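User: Fold this, then the next.

Assistant: Folding the first:
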Amino acid sequence: MKHFNLFLLLSFFIIISCSENDNNSSSDGYDRSLLLSNVVNNIMIPAHQNFDNELELFESTVNSFTQERTMSNLETMQDQFIETYKSWQHVEMFNIGYAEEIFYASKMNIYPANITRISQNINSDNVDLDGNSNQFSAQGFPALDYLLYGIAENNTQILDIYSPDNNLTLAYLNLLVSKMVDNTDSVINYWNTNKETFINSTGNTSTSSLNKLANDFVYYYEKGLRANKIGIPAGVWSGQLPQNVEAYYKSDISKILAVEALQASADFFNGIHFGESQTNGEGLYDYLAYLDDTNYSDSSMFLGLQDDIVESFDNSMVKINLLNDNFALQVQTDNMKMLEAYDAIQQGVVRLKTNMLSILGIAVDYYDADGD
């Protein structure tokens, strides 16, 4: 018993020591600040700023439509919605810091949309989109998708919905966009203020920046991309649910969104700068390559892991590109191809979650109920 108590005491001091020395370098000798600086300054913040720009353009089209409800303004608003939704795919994986605190990703892209609650909100005098998690699926892109494409059968009928006799629906549309802009601006302000602190947290503890960043990335790849975009609609865990595809009411863009998300994931892993330059900076690929070069791991299973992960991204892109532009239609007509795309992405999940996090000495910090 005395030895056991001593063990507990030593364990306690080790935990305290690790938490108090979060900025210490990791034991493998790799300079994590290089990776963190590249991700924050050349990927994360530029992707958020680009999204903010697209979102503001969308807000301006909503304002124009509010002032003059014409077919031309409706179509312009719809077109900009698509561009904004595409740019969001490069931001969603960064559910960290203030974004995590305010449930930013949940408020922006929980689908399918809850049509019943949206209707209740439209007819409510006092709508609180922040105080209740049940409101997540009644706002953001899925709610806009419904209001722009699903509220009636065609654009002529949609325009009738937004007639001057019905200002409630338009008021709710404006409220959603305003909330999205406010939340995005607050997240960007957080990063502009706290980026140096984030970059300087180079240790290897559960609260260190790279540990949280890597976990959030893997979680997004597994849940946000693999499960939400592909697995759930394809019925991997239950019956087929074509109504659960992303952008269901404009579901001929579901493939476009998935391609954007997969490319964003691959670029993040490779450390490729956001934007047209495609400059290759320090990323998780380089971290794994460094460990290869220094023979950090004695296990042959990790040799060349960085290239195996890139191969998984490539294979996944091939499988997704074989799908119909409309994922709902793909599920209904040839679901086997959806399942093949799921399997390709799942191979990447294993390499990222099981192999990569293991060799980096990063513990998985989220609970997985999928059985994989």
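Now the next one, as you asked:
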Amino acid sequence: MSAVAPLAPQRAARIATQLMELIELQKLSPGDKLPPERQLADLLEVSRPSLREALHILQAQGLVQIKHGQGTFVQEPVVAQELRASVMTKTHGLNELFDAREVLEVPASKWAAEKATKEDIRLLRATLNQIDTITAIEPIDFDQMQALDAKFHLTIVGIAGNRFINQTLNVLQDVMKMSMETTLRLPGRTEISRSQHNEILAAIESGDGELASKLTLQHISGARSTALADAKMRENN
């Protein structure tokens, strides 16, 4: 019996790309388990040996982890792990954290306006409604409000569909948490943030990418100014 010919590198790479697209489509996060091998092969209409070769490519790239007897799991990319380690050292200043948000979120808002579906808009509006509910109750649960604020921004980034940005979403969440740690608690900031969120959502819903990115930049710049002013006041006291 002749040996089975190895899969052409180009075909294996193409299947690997399809797998990554499937992971993004199903919104799987690091740690999530992929569907069983047979189901994946059927979904992609490829043979199981071909699928295994593609999975090994992704494992070599650090994008999935194959655990024998357990299945295949999404893994946080190495670049994201390195970014997370860098962020969590807390050696970055506030300006650098806000710079990172601008680089990732401003273009993402533009792309989201071009791609957002009715369901995406519904999810964004539901998040803002949740924020409204929390701010109407005294005392305000700032931890929950911060989580919902981050969810609103992260949902926009997710809608944009940029592969690199999506791979670093969890790191961006850490960046946002650190950059928003005190700003939402400052007097008047909650009302300003709510108003700006609604303007950003309206721009995305209308499909106006240029306006959405402009409003997002203004929103982040305002939060930056507030955070820096608060930090300076703390230093002087």
